[in-house]
Design brief:
Layout: E1 2-11, E2 21-26, E3 29-36, H1 39-53, H2 64-84, E4 92-93, E5 95-103, E6 106-114, E7 118-123, E8 126-129, H3 136-142, H4 148-151, E9 173-177, E10 184-188, H5 190-193, H6 198-207, H7 211-223, E11 231-241, H8 244-250, H9 254-261
Antiparallel strand pairs: 1-11, 2-3, 3-4, 3-5, 5-6, 6-9, 7-8, 7-10, 10-11
Helix pairs in contact: 1-2, 6-7
The chain binds magnesium ion.
């Protein structure tokens, strides 16, 4: 099994009146959803998506296919609610997350993404963005038409090209990773990545050891800026991998272990 330490934090930000982000931190699934489509619609979409992802009842691990099916179920729920209720006809939501899974008999992590919320992985001092934004500016960057710096102030920087609830079925980006003790995953809405560039996120990540303190610190650091958007962060630290005994060993002083055995 994979043992994790988790922190989550969400805030309305400095300007908006409603928080349309939603977070899920319920093992085996950790996710951020960033709703859009009017004041009411955004909140409905992100809440509905998180509700449809929170279906594993505290299992220590699930099949990757079950997680992807839950994301499709979230898409169906948002899409059908749009069609049934004209007041939320324009709504949709991003979803980005990490799930604890069993893949071909081994512990594995499933990372998944729709939209422009992000998953980063920190290993030591290095921070790497695992997900690719489904956004207009990302497409312009990939086409070589604008730089990352220009994307930060581009008028269409908030326009996503793929959302939960936009079509009857959704294409989900996903990756299966082998977990290592010390891996740290930061799942965030664009309220964080739009406010803090990767270097600033990396500096905060390197500075805070505990997962819950890190989630709070990242949100607080965004709030210290303009923070016009809602901002949400879920931190997942891998603290143990393998059998229950192996997990216990991670926290045991090696000399003490040797003494007991000797
Ligand atoms: Mg946002």
């Amino acid at each position: 099994m994979i043992a994790v330490s988790v922190g989550a934090s969400t805030h309305v930000g400095n300007v908006r009146k409603n928080n349309q982000d939603a977070v899920l931190a319920a093992s085996p699934l950790f996710a951020v959803a960033d709703g859009m489509g009017g004041v009411a619609g955004g909140e409905v979409a992100s809440a509905l998506a998180v509700e449809r992802l929170n279906v594993f009842g505290g299992a220590t691990a699930v099949e990757p296919s079950s997680v992807l099916a839950a994301v499709q179920a979230a898409n169906t729920a948002v899409f059908e609610r749009r069609r049934a209720d004209p007041s939320v006809a324009e709504m949709g939501t991003t979803v980005a997350g990490v799930a604890l899974t069993r893949h071909e008999g081994s512990d594995a992590l499933l990372v998944f993404n729709v939209g422009d919320s992000r998953i980063y992985r920190a290993q030591g001092a290095a921070l790497e963005q695992l997900s690719t934004d489904h956004s207009v500016v990302e497409e312009l960057i990939e086409a070589g038409r604008i730089t990352t710096e220009q994307a930060a102030t581009h008028p269409e920087r908030n326009v996503v090209t793929r959302v939960i609830g936009g079509e009857p079925t959704v294409q989900i980006d996903s990756w299966i990773l082998v977990p290592s003790v010390g891996d740290r995953f930061i799942i965030c809405s664009d309220g964080l990545s739009g406010e803090l560039d990767d270097d600033r996120i990396a500096a905060v990540v390197a500075d805070v050891m505990q997962a819950d303190a890190l989630a709070d610190k990242l949100v607080a650091t965004a709030l210290a800026g303009r923070c016009r958007d809602n901002v949400s962060v879920v931190v997942v630290d891998v603290v143990g991998v393998g059998s229950t005994d192996d997990v216990a060993d991670e926290d045991t002083d090696p000399r003490l272990l040797a003494d007991q055995r000797g």
